[in-house]
TrEMBL record:
Localization of this protein: Periplasm
Record's keyword annotation contains Hydrolase: yes
SMART domains linked: Fn3_like
EC number of this enzyme: 3.2.1.21
Name by which UniProt lists this protein: Periplasmic beta-glucosidase
Biological processes, Gene Ontology terms: glucan catabolic process
Amino acid sequence: MYYKKISCVLVAAAITVSGFAQPKKVAAPQSKMDQFVTNLMQKMTLEEKIGQLTQYTSDMALTGPSIRAGYKDDIQKGNVGSIFNAYTPAYTRQLQEMAVKNTRLHIPLIFGYDVIHGHKTIFPIPLGESSSWDLAAMEKSAHIAAAEASADGLHWTFAPMVDIARDPRWGRVAEGAGEDVWLGSQIATARVKGFQGAGFDGTTIMACTKHYAGYGFVQGGRDYNVVDVSQRTLWETILPPFKATVDAGVGSFMTSFNEIAGVPATANKWLVNDVLKKQWNYKGFVVTDYTAINEMVNHGNVANEKEAGEAAINAGIDMDMQGAVFAKYLKQSVSEGKVKIQTVNDAVRRVLEAKYKLGLFADPYKYCNEERAKTEIMSTANLDAARDIARKSLVLLKNYQQVLPLKKSGSIALIGPLGDDKRDMIGNWSGAGDWHKSVSLLEGMKAVAGAGVEINYAKGANFTDNKAIVDQMNTQGGDLVTDDPETLLKQAMDVARKADVIVMAVGESQGMTGEAASRSDISIPESQQRLMREIYTLGKPVVLVLMNGRPLTLQWEDAHFPAILETWFAGTEAGNAIADVLFGNYNPAGKLTISFPRSVGQIPVYYDMKKTGRPADPNNKYSSKYLDIPNDPLYPFGYGLSYTNFSYTQPVVDKKAIKTTDKLNVSVTVSNTGNYDGEEVVQLYIRDVVGSVTRPMKQLRNFRKVFLRKGESKEIKFTLTNEDLKFYDANMKYTSEPGDFKVFVGSNSRDTQEADFKLIP
Ligand code: BGC
């Protein structure tokens, strides 16, 4: 509504200034694609059009991939435009032939899949990768994923997930880039560029920005739950990464399962039609999430599936994932005048254009390449890249008295359910990945440490002894094995007693995070806590190696163990990458992109908080704080240690006051004062001291990842422009406001030094 008003005002202004209305623009000549699609659409029946808007899944039987008889029939009749969960060159060729050879208009299928963090070579989970703060590496991992997927028959991935997420109870924080809007937007862009490359030459795939929008804000962190956020939160926090991917040319969007303030995203005309398609001028197509149209009946905004389909397509949805609602009812809705044929045509055009851009009309089998699949999938180069980004993703949370790196001599006890585990290394959303090929921590440690170190392993504890959780996970395709807890503990204590150092690999099993894996208690499960408490009594140096898909509450662990390394689920090469860090072949430099709360009661806790009218004051009872814990998280956004130390000078600004057209240079000298060469992520934050609406205390605006040799110093220069100072003002206008600003530079969002400047009119 708001932008419409503005555009009316602008049109009126243009008329008054020039005295008469501007002449109508001459229509641009039709592109080849337009001509092709227009010709094709002229030949299509309504049924064939609806077919293009329909997507069904393929299945995986024990004997290999399979398609349900009904879907096969539908493909051959032209009632399906897309299949997902189907891959391999041979199988996709078989399905493609069904569509191309048997249908009247020979329109090819588009094959989609959740290629989330790698196809067969699995990279760290997205939250892990984001901790590398290495945009080029993230682009590269998406590029490799695309190369493998495209060689394996796929055209389209349902990634990146760009939901800003600040509630670690929500299992899907694992799939995104953390809590920050600015960094999240950069990472979203890098991932789109990585998947899509410079064009669809057959070695790249179409990306899909998801989940539009607000899914990261489900109440209580409970998956699929209600979302109710202000317009300000939407524009300031939720929407920017989505917009960034539109600017990066993303080919498709997926709506989210949740409602926002009473309207399910999949029926949200304002969100999809008005903002995405009109205001942002997005030209790609929009697919629903899995059966999200049907689920509107449960939401209660429609009475039945037919109405749900009408609400969806009228809101701007172009493709129905798995729900068959368009297939069943859209023809009737059109004949009743509930859906205009132009609306259907717009959707069909968008889907056909995507197929055209992918080159599928020119060659429907362009992505079915047995030779490429054989040579490129899990190539040595891809595995090397996976090891490299896995190392970059690890975050050293604590290293008291330099317990790490470990010596390549003596004896080590490796204890914990994740120590000799392959399945969990590749995390969830790694559908095509073969976990048998992943490197366990035990294997990695043995390979990297060499013969000089004796490493003995004991599982020590089950992931959890909570039968309800085990049963729930295992009935849904999980593979949690439970052994007798007492025997496990005894074995672990025997192994640990004989060792010089104990490495404990603890955390979550991969199924404890991801979709439909919300947790109300985000601590390490009690079975493993008991193990940790017992091991602690031995008084030996303990290194905790954490594997998990979300922030955990680690107050006890932080207080009792000298070294903690966060490794997420690091992918096919996890064991090697973690061992590289443990034994000092690689100096860790990862930084958290999401805060680790002290306790669940602090949630949501994130770094760009506002001050409130009663900022926390230990001497004032009536100030905004808890009685039992500090306000800040245990490990803040941007935090992560290195084996070396870095010192910072106070930042210096080259001007005390700037105009909106000026640039402000900020410089700081960073020195490596420790004993190792290493990398540091130098972070720059700003604060608008007084705004027409209240502003966060810090907002990330830039960073630089720098390598410094031992003893080396470097001057790091940043440039701030007016763009960096803008926000949605009291009238929701995106602008900067004159006044005082602070700029902070430092090693994480908590430890910074500051300088001041003014923006003058
Ligand atoms: C998830 C999506 C995913 C889709 C297809 C849904 O359950 O929410 O993120 O892309 O399934 O697998």
